[in-house]
């Protein structure tokens, strides 16, 4: 299917790179390594340059997103309301840094500039749900709420296997 | 012509010149870091800023063209303060380990810190902490020492067109690295080392082989011998403040004897041997009209490039080992038998202007019964360290002669070190091997010089040989396109990965002066001009080795010992 993606863009045209990467991410949810190589060959640039572009822009992901995506707002209003502490609490609870995905692929943690919900700062979103007026003590509860689902699924699988 | 004033000096400059270039014409030096001569300016480092009347901000002189009536100050207080701040910020985010750094006293960051009198740590903050990449056999990459000037990136992408490294991430986490931060050994890198030559710090450096060499020299059981590449003799003097282009062959030989090498041989001997094998191969292929054009195989950087990117032309690359590998192979076969030595006891050290040769010597096909043809390769720069360590005062050394028989060479071998040299040497002998007579012409000037691709046509009897010389791996794609287009049938093509050939190799002394390279090339042509014999087939030692051992060029035994094979290593 990815050949179709490539075919939409002219060959050996450097300016097609970013739209091409966006299209690939649209299709795969992230930029897989072998597809990035094909993209590099298609636009006629070395892989390292393409990789450089992909790592420069926040919009591109090189690993698939976790099942749940937590976005922490670090906009001005949230910053004033100590969103740094919220981020730190999440990083500690999930044992990952912003921009990473947990090893069990359950959570991805992202930092965004403004969610547009300044009135309920500090705010985070998990998938399509928003949590406002947060305090550090609320974080564990939220993380637990979303990890619970996956645990039940995985134990169900394990039971089937045994 | 444009008239402007720089530091109250009236300067006449050509249109399109940058302020930096104009200042240089009147002896005003402006510091630079990201600037690379002959490439488009990036203006990234801001160390070259100057004050221009009528401008509110400081102007990067490397990227700003001169204009009529411009008044420039390159040395105002504001300029100096601004440059110093840049240096301070760079220094603060750089490991403070100059005392144990390989580039100590030859580091542009150190020089700038000295020049702007940085005497205190004004900015204490987080500093980069990246792992060193020691995966490749030739190069080490230490991103913690990188100041992100981008010169290596540009030489790799714009000049060599290999594209192994680039800027990755952004802001404080910016780093120059390979895709996915993998080791250089699994990247597209051909290990040419041109990035080392342009690196202002020790972020890129060769992998040192000094330990094994010094240990072997101290060993009682090993018979340590050494060989010197043609390009080393024309550049080593620079490290001892001799004028660029001084031929230091004699001192080199006596210096190496003092280090304890049992014998000192010349790679030039093997260069002559290479010509005999390669010219014979060329003639066979032309007669049979197969696998043409023939590509030279002296440059392991080119071989690695072809194996990675053009596996379809591997049959066209000469099967000859590169000269220093031939020398090693002959030492461990013919010479060992002649002298009653065991091949495994001989330890061959090659002194090369090259970093790829380190990788090449580790290739398993370049060994016999698990004994490598060449045991260790050290660069010109490492040799200086070896001399210093041993207390050899190079400038005062007497001149000495190479050991025989593997130390005898002709002028044709000396020019192997420069772009076009292998081709010229091959043509000199090809004429003889085909017609049985030497041609009147001995200097093929149309394939000399610093152009990207050099072409010539040689008439031998009714045979017309179309030859080409590719000067720098960055031009090889153009050449391959030309061949594939079929507009002209080529017979023989020389490729050297480094621009200018081995003389400008990645293992050579580090400086940022192109004029030095030109002088080194002149020195090699001078050695050739003054040589008593200038044609490889006239090398008496080579004649003897064919009589006593190989029988004739291209014989079965010659193939076993002097030739190799290549593998598709594309991904």
Topology:
The complex is a heterodimer of chains A (162) and B (571).
Chain A: H1 2-7, H2 17-28, H3 33-43, H4 47-56, E1 68-73, H5 76-80, H6 83-94, E2 107-112, E3 124-126, E4 129-131, H7 139-161
Parallel strand pairs in A: 1-2
Antiparallel strand pairs in A: 1-3, 3-4
Helix pairs in contact in A: 2-3, 3-4
Chain B: E1 2-6, E2 9-13, H1 19-25, E3 49-52, E4 59-60, E5 71-73, H2 77-92, H3 108-115, E6 139-141, H4 151-159, E7 166-168, E8 175-177, H5 194-198, E9 204-206, H6 210-218, E10 223-228, H7 230-233, H8 249-259, E11 263-266, H9 267-288, E12 294-295, H10 300-309, H11 323-339, E13 346-352, H12 356-361, E14 367-368, E15 371-372, E16 376-379, H13 380-390, H14 411-414, H15 421-435, E17 453-460, E18 463-471, H16 476-485, E19 492-496, H17 514-530, H18 540-550, H19 556-562
Parallel strand pairs in B: 1-5, 10-11, 10-13, 12-19, 13-16, 18-19
Antiparallel strand pairs in B: 1-2, 3-4, 3-5, 6-9, 7-8, 14-15, 17-18
Helix pairs in contact in B: 2-3, 9-11, 9-15
Report on the structure:
The complex is a heterodimer of chains A (162) and B (571). Chain A has two domains: 2-56, no CATH class; 68-148, Glutaredoxin (3-Layer(aba) Sandwich). Helices cover 49% and strands 11% of the residues of chain A. Chain A is built from seven helices and four strands; from the N terminus they run ααααβααβββα. Chain A has a four-stranded mixed sheet with strand order 2-1-3-4, covered by helices on one side. In chain A, helix 2 packs antiparallel against helix 3. The longest helix of chain A has 23 residues, at 139-161. Chain B is an alpha/beta fold and 571 residues long. Chain B folds into three domains: 2-89, Ubiquitin-like (UB roll); 131-207, Alpha-Beta Plaits (2-Layer Sandwich), CATH 3.30.70; 211-562, Rossmann fold. Chain B is 35% helix and 14% strand. Chain B has 19 helices and 19 strands. In chain B, the strands form six sheets. In chain B, strands 2-1-5-3-4 form a five-stranded mixed sheet, sandwiched between helices. In chain B, helix 2 crosses helix 3 (108-115), helix 9 (267-288) packs across helix 11 and helix 9 (267-288) packs across helix 15. The interface between A and B is medium-sized, with 13 and 17 residues.
């Amino acid at each position: 299917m990815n050949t179709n993606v490539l075919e939409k863009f002219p060959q050996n045209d450097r300016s097609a790179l970013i739209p091409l990467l966006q299209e690939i991410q649209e299709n795969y949810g992230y930029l897989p390594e072998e597809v990035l190589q094909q993209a590099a060959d298609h636009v006629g640039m070395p892989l390292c340059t393409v990789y450089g572009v992909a790592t420069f822009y926040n919009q591109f992901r090189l690993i698939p997103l976790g099942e749940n995506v937590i976005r922490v707002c670090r906009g001005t209003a949230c910053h004033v309301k100590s969103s740094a502490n919220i981020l730190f609490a999440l990083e500690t609870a999930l044992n990952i840094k912003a921009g990473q995905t947990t090893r069990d692929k359950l959570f991805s943690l992202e930092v965004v500039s403004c969610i547009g919900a300044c009135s309920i700062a500090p705010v985070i979103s998990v998938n399509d749900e928003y949590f406002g007026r947060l305090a550090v003590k609320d974080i564990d509860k939220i993380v637990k709420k979303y990890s619970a689902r996956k645990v039940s699924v995985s134990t169900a699988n394990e039971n089937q296997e045994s | 012509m444009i008239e402007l004033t720089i530091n109250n000096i009236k300067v006449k400059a050509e249109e399109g010149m940058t302020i930096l270039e104009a200042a240089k014409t009147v002896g005003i030096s402006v510091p630079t870091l990201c600037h690379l001569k002959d490439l488009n300016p990036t203006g990234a480092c801001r160390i070259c800023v100057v004050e221009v009347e009528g401008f509110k901000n400081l102007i990067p002189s490397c990227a700003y063209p001169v204009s009529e009536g411009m008044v420039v100050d390159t040395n105002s207080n504001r300029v100096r303060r601004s440059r110093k701040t840049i240096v301070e910020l760079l220094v603060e985010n750089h490991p403070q380990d100059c005392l144990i750094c390989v580039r100590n006293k030859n580091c542009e960051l150190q020089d700038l810190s000295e020049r702007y009198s940085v005497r205190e740590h004004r900015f204490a903050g987080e500093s980069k902490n990246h792992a060193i990449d020691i995966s490749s056999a030739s190069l080490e990459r230490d991103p913690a020492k990188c100041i992100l000037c981008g010169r290596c990136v540009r030489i790799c992408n714009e000049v060599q067109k290999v594209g192994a490294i680039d800027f990755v991430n952004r802001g404080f986490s910016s780093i120059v690295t390979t895709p996915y931060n993998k080791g250089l050994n699994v990247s597209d890198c051909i290990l040419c080392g041109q990035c080392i030559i342009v690196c202002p710090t020790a972020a890129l450096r060769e992998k040192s082989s000094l330990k094994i060499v010094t240990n072997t020299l101290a060993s009682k059981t090993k018979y340590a011998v050494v060989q010197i590449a043609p390009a080393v003799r024309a550049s080593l003097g620079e490290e001892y403040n001799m004028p660029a282009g001084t031929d230091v062959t004699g001192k080199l030989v006596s210096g190496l004897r003092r280090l304890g090498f049992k014998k000192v041989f010349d790679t030039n001997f093997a260069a002559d041997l290479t010509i005999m094998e390669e010219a014979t191969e060329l003639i066979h292929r032309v007669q049979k009209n197969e696998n043409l054009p023939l590509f030279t195989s002296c440059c392991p950087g080119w071989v690695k490039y072809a194996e990675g990117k053009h596996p379809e032309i591997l049959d066209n690359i000469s099967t000859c080992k590169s000269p220093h590998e031939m020398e090693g192979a002959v030492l461990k076969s013919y010479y060992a038998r002649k002298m009653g030595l065991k091949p495994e006891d001989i330890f061959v050290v090659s002194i090369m202007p090259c970093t790829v040769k380190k990788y090449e010597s580790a290739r398993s096909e370049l060994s016999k019964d698990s004994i490598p043809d060449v045991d260790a390769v050290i660069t010109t720069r490492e040799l200086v360290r070896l001399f210093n360590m041993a207390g050899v005062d190079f400038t005062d050394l007497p001149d000495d002669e190479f050991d025989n028989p593997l130390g005898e060479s002709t002028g044709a071998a000396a020019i192997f070190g420069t772009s076009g040299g292998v081709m010229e040497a091959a043509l000199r002998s090809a004429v003889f091997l085909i017609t049985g007579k030497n041609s009147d012409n001995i200097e093929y000037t149309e394939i000399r010089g610093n152009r990207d691709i050099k072409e010539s046509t040689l008439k031998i009897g009714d045979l017309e040989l179309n030859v080409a010389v590719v000067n720098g791996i960055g031009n090889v794609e153009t050449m391959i396109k030309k061949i594939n287009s079929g507009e002209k049938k080529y017979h023989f093509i020389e490729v050297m990965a480094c621009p200018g050939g081995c003389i400008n190799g990645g293992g050579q002394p580090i400086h940022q002066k192109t004029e030095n390279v030109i002088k080194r090339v002149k020195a090699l042509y001078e050695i050739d001009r003054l040589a008593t014999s200038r044609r490889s087939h006239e090398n008496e030692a080579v004649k003897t080795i064919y009589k006593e051992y190989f029988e004739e060029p291209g014989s079965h035994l010659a193939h076993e010992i002097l030739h190799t094979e290549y593998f598709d290593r594309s991904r």
